[in-house]
Design goal:
This protein has two helices and twelve strands; from the N terminus they run αββββαββββββββ. It has 200 residues and is α+β, with helices and mostly antiparallel strands. The strands form three sheets. It has a five-stranded antiparallel beta sheet with strand order 2-6-7-8-5. A hairpin with a 2-residue loop joins strand 3 and strand 4. The radius of gyration is 22 Å and the shape is globular.
Length: 200
C-alpha cells in the first residue's frame, strides 16, 4: 500500500528547496561588489593609462580605470580565475613579468589566477617633465595570503631577478614616443617604484 505524503510535508520540502536556491543565489553574488583597487608608481609625478582591453572574472563588475597623480584606480570586483591570468600572460615569457609579494620561490611561473587585468598604454611623467610612453603594459591583480597583490608585464620589459628590477626599453627614446624606465617593487603589494633611463 502506497502511503501518501502529507500536504504539509510537501510544503515543507518545497520551502527547503526554495531556501536552498535563494541561499545559492545569494552565495553566487557574494563578493561581486565594486572595489577601488589602487596601484601606485612612486618616482613619477603623473600617469595616464589608456586601456585597450580589460579582462575580469565572469559575474564580476567593472566600472572603469582612471589615474590620479601617480596612482591607477580600477573600479572592479575581486574574484580570481584563470581567464584574466591567461589574458595577462598571452605572448609573454616568465622574464616579461614582475609580481609583488608572490609565493616563494617567486619567479617560477606566471600567475595562474587573477581578479582582473588591464592592458594598454601607460604614459609615465617624471620630475624632469619627461613623459615615457610604454605600450602593451599589463596590470593584473591577484591574491596571495590575506592580501591582493599586483603584477605588471610587457613584451618590452625584462625582469632581472638578481636585482629585483624590471627594465622596460624600446628602440625609440622617450623624446620620440618611446619608453625607457626601470620598475622595482615598492614598499607594499600595490606599489611599483619607477625611475627613468635617459640614455639614448
Amino acid at each position: 500500500e502506497v502511503c501518501p505524503i502529507p500536504l504539509t510535508m510537501i510544503f515543507s520540502i518545497s520551502g527547503l528547496v526554495s531556501a536552498a536556491v535563494l541561499a545559492s543565489s545569494l552565495g553566487n553574488t557574494a563578493g561581486a561588489e565594486i572595489h577601488d583597487n589602487t596601484v601606485s608608481f612612486p618616482g613619477s609625478t603623473a600617469l595616464h593609462f589608456n586601456v585597450s582591453h580589460f579582462g575580469i572574472t565572469g559575474g564580476q563588475p567593472y566600472k572603469g580605470t582612471t589615474t590620479q597623480g601617480n596612482v591607477v584606480h580600477i573600479q572592479a570586483g575581486r574574484k580570481g580565475s584563470a581567464g584574466p591570468a591567461a589574458d595577462f600572460g598571452a605572448g609573454l615569457d616568465l622574464l616579461n613579468v614582475l609580481g609583488l609579494d608572490t609565493a616563494w620561490p617567486h619567479l617560477t611561473q606566471l600567475p595562474k589566477d587573477l581578479n582582473f587585468v588591464a592592458i594598454g598604454t601607460l604614459s609615465i611623467t617624471f620630475p624632469s617633465n619627461t613623459t615615457h610612453t610604454c605600450q602593451d603594459i599589463r596590470l593584473g591583480q591577484g591574491h596571495h595570503g590575506f592580501d591582493n597583490n599586483w603584477w605588471i608585464g610587457s613584451k618590452d620589459c625584462i625582469s632581472v631577478p638578481e636585482t629585483h628590477q624590471f627594465n622596460c626599453k624600446t628602440l625609440d627614446p622617450p623624446s620620440k614616443g618611446g619608453c625607457r624606465v626601470t620598475i622595482s617593487p615598492g614598499n607594499s603589494d600595490h606599489e611599483f617604484e619607477v625611475r627613468e633611463d635617459m640614455s639614448e
